[in-house]
C-alpha cells in the first residue's frame, strides 16, 4: 500500500452527524478553537454586545490551498478580521463553516485549522459557532471555508462616503504581493525569489492608529481588484477626484517582474494584508510613522512570515474635486491617465 493511501482522509460520515463527525469536531475543531462559548455546544452562540457593531461575512476558495506566506485557513481568519478592522471594529466573535470534499487528507485539514487558531491570537477574536459539511468527491475543490465576524466599532464616521477634498491617501505597505504569490504557486514558477503573500491580520495596526486618535475618514483592505478597485469605489462613493503619484507606489521588485512577464498591473493585483487610508493631510505623516513603527517592531516575529516591509508605508496621493468620480494616475514622466477599475478575470480564485 502506498504512502498516500495510508494517509487518513475525510469520509462522508465525517459530515453525517454521527460518531465520526462528533469525534472530528471535538478532537480537532474544539481543541484548536477552544473557548467557553463554542464548547457549550448550543445551536447558537449567546453573545453580549454593546454599542455600534460591525458584522461581515466572506467565503474562501483559494487555489492552491497552501502558498508562500499562508494557506486558506490563515486567509479566512485574516480576511474576516480585516473587514471588521476597516470599520474600526475590534474583532470579537467569528463563525466558521467548512465544506470539505470527500477524500481530503486529514493532516492537511489539521494544518489549516491550526493555522486559523494561530492567526486568531493576533486579534483576540474567537470562533464561537460553526458548521461542517462533507460533499462527495468531485463536488468541491478540496475545501471551502466561510467565516463571519462581529466586532465593536471604536471610531465612528469611517465610510466610503466620508472622503473629503484635501485628504491624503496612504497605502500601508507594498502592493500586489498576494496576487503575485498565488500566481507563482499556481503556475509552478521557480524564479529565484523569496516572494511571499502579504496575508496578515491588520487589526493591531488599526488599533494603534485609533489609540493615537488619528481621525480616519475611510479605510479599505485592497483584496480582489487591488488598489485600483478601492480607489475607484472611493472616488464614486464620495464624488471626489483621487490623484495618485505612480512614483510613490511601493512595489517589490519580484512583483514588478511578474507583472512585466504576464502583462499585469501591480495596482490591479490582490492583497490580503495591505490597506488604504483616507485622512486629513495634517495627520498623514503621523499615521505613516505609526504604521512603520508597528511593522518594524514585528519584523523579527511571526509577521515576518508574511513578508512585512515596515519601511514601505507611503503617502501615495491626495483628494480633490475637479474630476469627481475619477482616479488620476500621475506617471514619472509628467503625464497622467485615468486609472480604471480592473476588467476581466486576471487571477481567479485568489481568496
TrEMBL record:
<feature type="domain" description="PurM-like C-terminal">
    <location>
        <begin position="164"/>
        <end position="294"/>
    </location>
</feature>
<dbReference type="Pfam" id="PF00586">
    <property type="entry name" value="AIRS"/>
</dbReference>
<dbReference type="InterPro" id="IPR036676">
    <property type="entry name" value="PurM-like_C_sf"/>
</dbReference>
<comment type="similarity">
    <text>Belongs to the HypE family.</text>
</comment>
<dbReference type="Pfam" id="PF02769">
    <property type="entry name" value="AIRS_C"/>
</dbReference>
<feature type="domain" description="PurM-like N-terminal">
    <location>
        <begin position="42"/>
        <end position="153"/>
    </location>
</feature>
<dbReference type="InterPro" id="IPR011854">
    <property type="entry name" value="HypE"/>
</dbReference>
<dbReference type="InterPro" id="IPR016188">
    <property type="entry name" value="PurM-like_N"/>
</dbReference>
<dbReference type="InterPro" id="IPR010918">
    <property type="entry name" value="PurM-like_C_dom"/>
</dbReference>
<dbReference type="InterPro" id="IPR036921">
    <property type="entry name" value="PurM-like_N_sf"/>
</dbReference>
<protein>
    <submittedName>
        <fullName>Hydrogenase expression/formation protein HypE</fullName>
    </submittedName>
</protein>
Amino acid at each position: 500500500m502506498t504512502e498516500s493511501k495510508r494517509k487518513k482522509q475525510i469520509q462522508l460520515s465525517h459530515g453525517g452527524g454521527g460518531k465520526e463527525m462528533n469525534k472530528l469536531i471535538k478532537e480537532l475543531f474544539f481543541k484548536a478553537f477552544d473557548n467557553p462559548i463554542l464548547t457549550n455546544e448550543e445551536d447558537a452562540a449567546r453573545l453580549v454586545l454593546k454599542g455600534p457593531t460591525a458584522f461581515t461575512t466572506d467565503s474562501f476558495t483559494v487555489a492552491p490551498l497552501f502558498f508562500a506566506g499562508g494557506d486558506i485557513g490563515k486567509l479566512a481568519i485574516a480576511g474576516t478580521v480585516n473587514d471588521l478592522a476597516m470599520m474600526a471594529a475590534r474583532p470579537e466573535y467569528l463563525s466558521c463553516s467548512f465544506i470539505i470534499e470527500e477524500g481530503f487528507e486529514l493532516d492537511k485539514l489539521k494544518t489549516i485549522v491550526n493555522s486559523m487558531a494561530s492567526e486568531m491570537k493576533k486579534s483576540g477574536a474567537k470562533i464561537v459557532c460553526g458548521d461542517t459539511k462533507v460533499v462527495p468527491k468531485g463536488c468541491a475543490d478540496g475545501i471551502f471555508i466561510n467565516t463571519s465576524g462581529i466586532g465593536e466599532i471604536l471610531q465612528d464616521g469611517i465610510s466610503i462616503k466620508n472622503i473629503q477634498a484635501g485628504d491624503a491617501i496612504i497605502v500601508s505597505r507594498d502592493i500586489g504581493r498576494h496576487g503575485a504569490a498565488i500566481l507563482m504557486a499556481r503556475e509552478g514558477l521557480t524564479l529565484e525569489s523569496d516572494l511571499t503573500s502579504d496575508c496578515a491580520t491588520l487589526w493591531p495596526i488599526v488599533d494603534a492608529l485609533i489609540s493615537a486618535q488619528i481621525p480616519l475618514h475611510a479605510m479599505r483592505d485592497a483584496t480582489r481588484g487591488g488598489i485600483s478597485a478601492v480607489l475607484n469605489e472611493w472616488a464614486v462613493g464620495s464624488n471626489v477626484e483621487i490623484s495618485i503619484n505612480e512614483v510613490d507606489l511601493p512595489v517589490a521588485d519580484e512583483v514588478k517582474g511578474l507583472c512585466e512577464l504576464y502583462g499585469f498591473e501591480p495596482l490591479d493585483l490582490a492583497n490580503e494584508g495591505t490597506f488604504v487610508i483616507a485622512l486629513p493631510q495634517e495627520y498623514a505623516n503621523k499615521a505613516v510613522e505609526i504604521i512603520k513603527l508597528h511593522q518594524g517592531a514585528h519584523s523579527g516575529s511571526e509577521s515576518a512570515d508574511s513578508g512585512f516591509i515596515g519601511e514601505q508605508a507611503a503617502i501615495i496621493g491626495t483628494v480633490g474635486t475637479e474630476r469627481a468620480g475619477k482616479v488620476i494616475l500621475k506617471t514619472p514622466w509628467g503625464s497622467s491617465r485615468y486609472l480604471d477599475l480592473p476588467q476581466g478575470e486576471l487571477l481567479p480564485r485568489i481568496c
